[in-house]
Amino acid sequence: QVCPVRVRVNGPLGRLVLVRLRLEARPGFPALDWHCSRVEVRGLADGQEGAESQTQVFLCDRWLQTADEDVDLRTGKCKITLIIIIIVVVINSIAQVNSSWFTAHWKDDWYFGHQCLNGCNPLMLRQIHLVPPNLSVTTDLLRPFLPEGSSLQLELQSGRIYLLDYEVLDGIPANVVNGKQTYLSAPLCLLHLNQQDQLVPIAIQLQQNPGPQNPVFLPSDAASDWLLAKIWVRGADSQCHQLVSHYLKSHLMGELCCVATLRQLPQVHPLHQLLMPHVKTLLQINLQARGSLLAAGGVFDQAMGSGLKTIPVLLSRASARITYRSLCVPDDLKDRGLDNLPQSYYAQDALRIWEVLHSFVVSWLQLYYSKDDDVQLDSELQGWITDINTHGFTHNSGFPQSFNTRAEVSKFVTMIIFSCSALHAAINFSQLDFALWMPNCPMAMLRPPPQVKGSVTEDDILTFLPDVSSTCRILMSLTMLSQPAVDFVPLCCYKEAIFADGAHRRLVEEVQAQLAAISEDIAERNSQLEMPYPYLCPTHIENSVAI
After folding, report:
1. 3-state secondary structure 227-274
2. Which domains does the chain have, with CATH numbers?
3. What is the pTM of this model?
4. Most buried of the four, 13, 137, 241, 297, by CB within 10 Å?
5. Which residue positions form the known binding site for Fe cation?
6. pLDDT surpasses 80 at 395
């Protein structure tokens, strides 16, 4: 990897004689060594890009540690004047997003809805046909935001009403950040698929229990009231994204299956051979996360509204609510009414990738299980699913308690591979793009939710948002998490010997060809979009959770 750093000087630089490097430890991050090959310094003639200039090379070729402090790289003989360049790289990469476009549209209702479908957390939105009883809305209240001649009941019946419900956050203890108490809410947000096929919010209630101090905010309210209500929803979504959609459904789900595989399936078992390339890095990654990001002094402790006291409570609640169908893409999208919504590029891409992975798993299992009886008689396989259920989920969550057919095994294994590869790509590598503009994804709120309308101005909104210090911590963490692994392995690319053998190799070649076709289709589609959705392009999907 190459890290370009621009250093501005006020006068002629002359000939460099020394470059000094320092690897600095950052609070909340693991102390990782860095192997530096060399430093190349190139001056720009008259400050112009592309102009010819001489490049000086300072060889290093050594591992740097934080304990080394300053490491000097020299060239030639030092004379009286030494020019020292100290390079401190804090953020190595910025999200590929047009910041001016983003800051111009983040307040727009249509963009709020777009993020529900194609943002970093596309797992919360669901279609409804009945309004929740604790959401205080009526047809008369919402009539101005519905098509002329229609009603709330008609729009519900036609499947054009959607809901965001963050009930899992209700009553969760909030963190103290930089000595300041933060606040969490558990909002409900009603959205409508309008006649322009835009998904837009039409009602927001910031707490679960209706009452006079819990008003329903509407698009017709004062602009500052409506904007603040949307920011509160985005803040709640950020907490659920990080801990539920990301950590629980991808990292912890993969860890559960990885540990069960190591416990119950010998290395020669066909499922051990198939699954390990997709889960092998999870234990290391999760241990690092629990020792840094999720530990005392880490970013959750120092910057998130959901701090260390929140994490076990929220994970326990979310785990009790998780269902098997919610982890299986076709079932999940159908249950949430998103399987046929053309505006959801996440849904389109996720379904195609699931189908390809499922076909691959079915063919793999057919090499070893000729009939369903073979599945039932495989004691190691039955012990594996028992281990997963014992340490993972409640009996009413819909997870299979045993395997009776090859189809059941195929679906379950596909779910694991998807969760540890495509799902992680969609919810991890997208987050910096949407959180780079902090008001769009505030990770903490410094004032409680408003209890009346008309109490804030747009200038007051700034007092709700995180300070610069905690925002920088968040962005540093997201930047680190958004970097692909140095040894990046694309989806269904395998280095293990078993995949190079005869029938296995043919299956791998088939699935790789199918994924390549999906990549081409996504690239073609994205070339026509103002806001491309690249996160589930198979060439961008890691074979396992590696960050």
Report:
1. HHHHHHHHHHHHHHHHHHHHHHHHHHHHHHHHHHHHHHCCCCCHHHHH
2. 18-87 (no CATH), 101-447+457-540 (1.20.245.10)
3. 0.84
4. 241
5. 246, 251, 424, 547
6. no
